[in-house]
Amino acid sequence: MSLRPLLILLLFMTGPTQAVIESYTFDNAQQEQRYQRFIAELRCPKCQNQNLAGSDAPIAADLRHELHRLLMEGKTDAEITEFMVARYGDFILYRPRVKPETIALWAGPALMLLIGGLWVWRISRRSRAAAQTPDSVAAAAGALNESDRDRLRNMLDDKAKH
Amino acid sequence: MLQRLGLFLPLVVFAFLTYLFFQVERGVEQGAYDPNASPSARMHQPVPDFDLPLVDAPGRFSRADLPRQIHVLTVWATWCPSCVYEHRELMKLAPVLDVPIYGIDYKDDNAKALAWLEKLGNPYVANIDDAKGRLALDLGVTGAPEQFLVDAQGIIRHHHLGPLDAAVWEREFAPVVARLRGEATQ
User: Which residue in A has a C-alpha nearest to residue B47's C-alpha?
Assistant: First the structure.
């Protein structure tokens, strides 16, 4: 019984852990970091919804090998991206580059947020206006007069007796 | 009243999305839209430079050795299941096509490839041994089998993923060949 919270906690601790076991050596930690970032952000051309890090397709292994080679040759990030795109197109990038074809991808979410925000703002303004109406209606109609109040009190008292 | 109509807006959006979904679904069924298709980055670009050994002959083969006419480069391997099917189709196609077929043996064991050609026949004009897969990678190959239609100037004019057979030839390759020949005679 007391294990349950622990088990639930464990459930949240499992991340998406898929990785292939390969050993590449690097000159420094920064190089390795760049390698890890690239294999996380490059898409496997064969198995379309996996990144290079998680794919064991032969082509993914080749691309990791090429990536390692390019890194060791001292290529810059931009040069490596260019190398990949020249062969496999923008398709290979999980983080698409900003250009006319991809502007909807980049600007879309912000635009949606703006539209949604405007909508919520309009609704909240309208409901605030509505919230003020009952008071003014009541004021215009005049509050209950003395005899109304007596009748109401009698009704409530009757109910309480039964 | 107009505000009441506004309540139907989500329904209208839903109906539109449903329509969109079924349009795409129909496109997939009719083959007009392929969700797995990836645009080839090497289209209308020259075949990348290479210099590799041949599978079944001594000597090497480089880009300069490719013919000055329309030809097909097909990426195959003995470990690839649908290459068995493609090979059988190529044995039928090669004698009747007026376009030579060149093989790129992709990440394969040379002994196995030789045994395969010995046993099943050889539809290829030449067979390039891309043991490390470097040429395939430069071509933007995602696996095997895949084919490239290359024109007389060495420019890639079509890239097909999956086995090549008579139906694929008629549907995808023949029109491009006809267009290229039409342009050449003008």
Answer: A87
Tokens 């890639």 belong to residue = B156
Phi, psi of A63 (to 5 degrees): -70, -35
DSSP assignment string, A41-59 = HBBPSSSTTSBTTT---HH
Contact indicator for B153, B183 with CB cutoff of 8 Å: no
Entry pTM: 0.73
More confident residue, A79 or A133: A79
Give the number of other CB atoms < 10 A from CB of residue B52: 17
List pLDDT tens digits, range B91-145.
999 999 999 999 999 999 999 999 999 999 999 999 999 999 999 999 999 888 9
Chain B residue numbers touching A70 (CB-CB < 8 A): none
Neighbours of A26 (CB within 10 A): 15
Strands B71-76 and B146-150: antiparallel
CB hemisphere CA count around B27 (13 angstroms)? 12
Distant-in-sequence, close-in-space partners of B176: CB < 8 Å, separation ≥ 6: B149, B157, B158
Length reported for chain B: 186
* Contacting B residues, span 103-142, partner chain A, CB-CB under 8 Å: 107, 133, 136-142
What tokens appear for A26 in the block?
A: 């690097």
Pair B75, B145: CB distance under 8 Å: yes
Dist CA A22 CA A35 (whole Å): 12
- Yes or no, beta carbons of B139 and A88 under 8 Å apart: no
- Residue A38 and residue A94: Cα distance in Å, rounded? 10
